[in-house]
């Protein structure tokens, strides 16, 4: 048993089952010491209750999971809870309790905090949400993550939690902040063009294998800046999947000689030119 998923359905929750009970039961099994990957899905009423109680329980039983390397908190679909409704909490204590973690995934950003964000071995941090607050962006900006290789942030939209601006995102384009970073995802954004233009000639591209600007409102404006950049051309992979680029721009990418994903073309609202990221509510 190296991978385990814990979740609570509606009926189970109504019958009194709680996530902390599932964690306690799991921790009591001898096989818990072999678990490498733990995924926590719906905990019953994620739109009303955050994970505070079961996070404390998990931390309290940390010695039962010595092999744990990957943890995902909040992996649930829209039928269980809309992504923008998922309640979170300060999850930084989990990283302190599990110093051997190499991968931490989070879904949902309401009331999310990561303070202080310090970890000696974490290689991958992924936050999936409909809108990431500038407070959380600041927590990550100020993090001490010397081994971080992959940072993937769903930035989202103002209506669902994104209250920042390009200025809050610029720090992630600075080289040296995470010296081992090779995958940077600044995605699912309503200001994807601004991000693309700003990062197109950033020195951080020199250390990246992959730049992920997918799932947002990228148009020809941002794409032109990327396509004109020699630094972008040196990337091993550029992910622009789900975008608002024109047919002509797509053809230019396809003949660029680059490894780039330009699939899932979207059409803006003809009347107002409204464009929407892929993941919001």
TrEMBL record:
Classification via Pfam families? LRR_6 (PF13516)
Which InterPro entries does the UniProt record give? Answer: Leu-rich_rpt (IPR001611), LRR_dom_sf (IPR032675), STM4015-like (IPR047722)
Q: Where are the stretches annotated Disordered?
A: 261-281
Q: Which NCBIfam families match?
A: fam_STM4015 (NF038076)
- The superkingdom of the source organism is Bacteria
Query: What does the record give as the organism's lineage?
Result: Bacteria, Bacillati, Bacillota, Bacilli, Bacillales
Q: Which residues form the signal peptide?
A: none
> What is this protein's record name?
STM4015 family protein
